[in-house]
Each structure stands twice: as structure tokens, then as C-alpha cells.
Amino acid sequence: MKYARALTIAGSDSGGGAGIQADLKTFQELGVFGMSALTAVTAQNTLGVHGVYPMSLEALENQIDAVAADLPPAAIKTGMLFNSDMIELVARKVKEYDWNQVVIDPVMVAKGGQSLLQEEAVEALIEQLLPLSYVITPNLPEAEALVGMSVQTIEDRKLAAKKLHQKGARHVVIKGGHGKEGDQVIDLLFDGENFTEFESQRIQTKHTHGTGCTYAAAITAEIAKGKSVKDAVNTAKQFIQAAIEHTLEFGEGHGPTNHWAYNEK
Ligand SMILES: Nc1ncnc2c1ncn2[C@@H]1O[C@H](COP(=O)(O)OP(=O)(O)O)[C@@H](O)[C@H]1O
Ligand SMILES: Cc1ncc(COP(=O)(O)O)c(N)n1
């Protein structure tokens, strides 16, 4: 296809910085036609999540079917999936449509600390979605929840990545934004055999709302265009670094990243 298409299956962030809003902005900036199936609507701004309103399973299924029937995506990204029923539905749809380029961003908690995934759903994510994932992109707390161990040092991250690969993830990206490694942010890619570290200067800012969504969406867009996972992560790293560096300084809390910065440089 001349232009690639990508589908995000995630929540809506009324504040525009995370969720499907971040995904669609990122897809667009990387030249990929973005489509979305909403799992939930959140009333959100830079100060936190002020309400979570899950969609019905019927609404989620119909959105996915409508896209699959007429606009089959080259790559799919999942974000906030809210509960195990939704996770089971998404897993069923991935199998039904034989989608094999699925990027799972295992969203669990918003930056302000509000839960975006019910506790009981973590097991479903591991059992149902991990085996179908082309790439999984946990941050450090999410990696800890998924493998049940402390994940801080690079060695921890390598062990966690191996465990997630054993659970079925074909590629694992352990995001390092929550890391304590001083003035560097190190993201770690594991492809089942080799590790690749993507380093960048840590930017001292509170405006990191939606960084994980944006990063995973950039990986998804690049994969939709046919890039290798390693090349996709490399581009996503540059994309998110520019998006944080050229912050918009919006809002009183954790402000959003700048989704057009990458193309402005
Ligand atoms: N302060 C920062 N400076 C530079 N890069 C950052 C910073 N915070 C996050 N990032 C980048 O954004 C990515 C996602 O951020 P992270 O906090 O790890 O995930 P999440 O937003 O899902 O919690 C990281 O892998 C890293 O590449
Ligand atoms: C609807 C929605 N989805 C995901 C996130 C996580 O955002 P972050 O990338 O900052 O962890 C969010 N805050 N809201």
C-alpha cells in the first residue's frame, strides 16, 4: 500500500497528551494514516485523571470490525485496555484478523497515579496478549508488575526482558524514563537473542505526560511502514527526545510532549 495505516486500540485523553490523541498525532507526524478504536473515555488534564468511562464491549468490537473490514491496518498499537474482558476481546480480534504486527503498550497507571488497568487484568494481559505481541513496551513499574521482580538496574532489565520474551513477546522494549541512571535515559531492546541499548540525555522536566504512549506509537508507525523493530525503536527514541526537549509547557501539572518537534528540527 502506498501509505501505511495503523490502528490504535486505547483510551481517550481529553487533555490531548496521551491515549489515542497522542497516538494519532504521532502516526500523522510519521506519515502514517491513523485509526482508533476507543476502549474508554477519560476526563483528564495535566493534573490527573478526573474520571474513567469505559466503552461497552460491543462498542469496542464494532469499532475494530469496522476498521478491519474496510481499512485493514499494517500495524496495531494497544494502550489503555481497562479490564480483562477488553483484553480477551482484543486478543480474540487479533487472532480473528491474523494481525501479527501488534505493539502492546501495557498501560497500567497514569503519571498522576490513577489506575488505568484493573488489578485483575494484569494476568489476562500476560496470558492472552503477550503471546500475540510483536513488541511490548513496558516502563519500569509495568515491567515489575508483569514479571514480579524489581526492575531497576540494566541487569534487572535484561532479566525482565528475557522473562517477557519467554512469556511470548517477540520483541521487548524496557523503557527507561523512570530509571535512576543519573543524566542518561537508557531504553533496552531485546529481540530474543541480542540486546540493544538506546541512550539519550535525561531532560529535567515535569512535562512528560504521554511519553510512553507517544514512544510506542512512533514504534508502531515505523513498523507499519515496514521498518525493522530496531530501526523503529531508533526513530521513536529520536521522536520522543525531540518531543520532550521542545516542551510546550502547557498546564499546571505534567504537561504534554510536543508531537511536531521531530519534524521541525
Ligand atoms: N526526562 C526524560 N528525558 C528524556 N527522555 C525521556 C524522559 N522521560 C521519558 N523519556 C523517554 O520517553 C520514553 C517513555 O517514558 P517512560 O517514562 O519510560 O514511560 P511511560 O511514559 O510509559 O511511563 C522513555 O523510554 C524515554 O525514551
Ligand atoms: C487514556 C490514557 N492512556 C494512557 C495514559 C498513560 O500516559 P503515559 O504515557 O504518560 O504513561 C494516560 N495518561 N491516559
TrEMBL record:
<dbReference type="Pfam" id="PF08543">
    <property type="entry name" value="Phos_pyr_kin"/>
</dbReference>
<dbReference type="GO" id="GO:0009228">
    <property type="term" value="P:thiamine biosynthetic process"/>
</dbReference>
<dbReference type="InterPro" id="IPR004399">
    <property type="entry name" value="HMP/HMP-P_kinase_dom"/>
</dbReference>
<comment type="pathway">
    <text>Cofactor biosynthesis; thiamine diphosphate biosynthesis; 4-amino-2-methyl-5-diphosphomethylpyrimidine from 5-amino-1-(5-phospho-D-ribosyl)imidazole: step 2/3.</text>
</comment>
<keyword id="KW-0808">Transferase</keyword>
<dbReference type="InterPro" id="IPR013749">
    <property type="entry name" value="PM/HMP-P_kinase-1"/>
</dbReference>
<dbReference type="GO" id="GO:0005524">
    <property type="term" value="F:ATP binding"/>
</dbReference>
<keyword id="KW-0547">Nucleotide-binding</keyword>
<dbReference type="GO" id="GO:0005829">
    <property type="term" value="C:cytosol"/>
</dbReference>
<protein>
    <recommendedName>
        <fullName>Hydroxymethylpyrimidine/phosphomethylpyrimidine kinase</fullName>
        <ecNumber>2.7.1.49</ecNumber>
        <ecNumber>2.7.4.7</ecNumber>
    </recommendedName>
</protein>
<feature type="domain" description="Pyridoxamine kinase/Phosphomethylpyrimidine kinase">
    <location>
        <begin position="13"/>
        <end position="258"/>
    </location>
</feature>
<dbReference type="InterPro" id="IPR029056">
    <property type="entry name" value="Ribokinase-like"/>
</dbReference>
<keyword id="KW-0418">Kinase</keyword>
<comment type="pathway">
    <text>Cofactor biosynthesis; thiamine diphosphate biosynthesis; 4-amino-2-methyl-5-diphosphomethylpyrimidine from 5-amino-1-(5-phospho-D-ribosyl)imidazole: step 3/3.</text>
</comment>
<comment type="similarity">
    <text>Belongs to the ThiD family.</text>
</comment>
<dbReference type="GO" id="GO:0008902">
    <property type="term" value="F:hydroxymethylpyrimidine kinase activity"/>
</dbReference>
<keyword id="KW-0784">Thiamine biosynthesis</keyword>
<keyword id="KW-0067">ATP-binding</keyword>
<dbReference type="GO" id="GO:0008972">
    <property type="term" value="F:phosphomethylpyrimidine kinase activity"/>
</dbReference>
